[in-house]
Design a protein that fits this description.
The N terminus is likely disordered. A hairpin with a 2-residue loop joins β6 and β7. It is built from eight helices and 13 strands. It is globular. The chain has about 240 residues and is an alpha/beta fold. The protein folds into two domains: about 120 residues, Response regulator (Rossmann fold); about 100 residues, Winged helix-like DNA-binding domain superfamily/Winged helix DNA-binding domain (Arc Repressor Mutant, subunit A, Orthogonal Bundle), CATH 1.10.10.
């Protein structure tokens, strides 16, 4: 384990020693602490018993694959952000990982720059409190006042639209499936279709996007869901 000035702990789950070492070296240079697990059983135990700020989880592992690790970790009540590292490109498998509780995925081969950006985005937004003012572009989302402002002017939002935007902002950079959004915004007991989510996202884009037909913040990921790309989000 390597200590760094950021004092953020990352669990690297990778069975290829050369890849694990490269990830360790890169993340250590960014100032993170790292720990490595090379098989699924060890990964699940470390993730559940340890206190990590992020988990980089390879899908193809000995003893237990990444999907099973993800399922075990979430069933244990651990909410640490998980980024899947996978060579698999089928949409169904990406969806499976997200449905099991992963927050994002990166397909191999990936660039170190892309992975660092994903890591920073998840660490920045993880555990963001539902208070304060968050800014992206010309917009401000005021959690205390339940208010959206653009260029200082209040934008009318329904209670549902505010909850949906808050869910995205607090998880900036993460892929959110329609099921995850339905559970959080509408509630797990509500019988609402995916189309309702899509319609609400369309309405929200009209209120936050400079060009709603070419969304900059609320990005669609075909077959997966949505991601809020608010790299400029700041608490004030």
């Amino acid at each position: 384990m390597n200590a760094g000035s950021n004092s953020k702990r990352i669990l690297i789950v990778e069975d290829e020693p050369s890849i694990a070492l490269a990830l360790e070296d890169d993340l250590r240079r960014e100032g993170y602490e790292t720990e490595v697990a090379s098989d699924g059983d060890t990964a699940a135990r470390k993730a559940i018993e340890g206190r990590f700020d992020l988990i980089l989880l390879d899908v193809m592992l000995p003893k237990k694959d990444g999907f099973d690790v993800c399922r075990d970790v979430r069933r244990a009540g651990v909410e640490t952000p998980i980024i899947l590292l996978t060579a698999k490109t089928q949409e169904a498998e990406k969806v499976l990982g997200l449905e099991l509780g992963a927050d994002d995925y990166v397909t191999k081969p990936y660039s170190a720059r892309e992975l660092r950006a994903r890591v920073k985005a998840h660490l920045r937004r993880d555990g963001a409190p539902a208070s304060g003012v968050y800014r992206f572009g010309d917009a401000e989302l005021d959690f205390a006042r339940c208010e959206l402002r653009r260029e200082g002017k209040v934008v009318a939002l329904s209670a549902l639209e505010f909850k949906l935007l808050a869910a995205f902002v607090k998880r900036s950079g993460r892929v959110l499936t329609r099921t995850q959004l339905l559970d959080e915004v509408w509630g797990a007991d509500m019988h609402v279709t995916d189309r309702v989510v899509d319609n609400q996202v369309t309405n929200l884009r009209k209120k936050i996007e400079p060009q709603p037909e070419r969304p900059r913040y609320l990005v669609s990921l075909r077959g997966l869901g949505y991601r809020f790309d608010g790299q400029g989000v700041t608490e004030r």
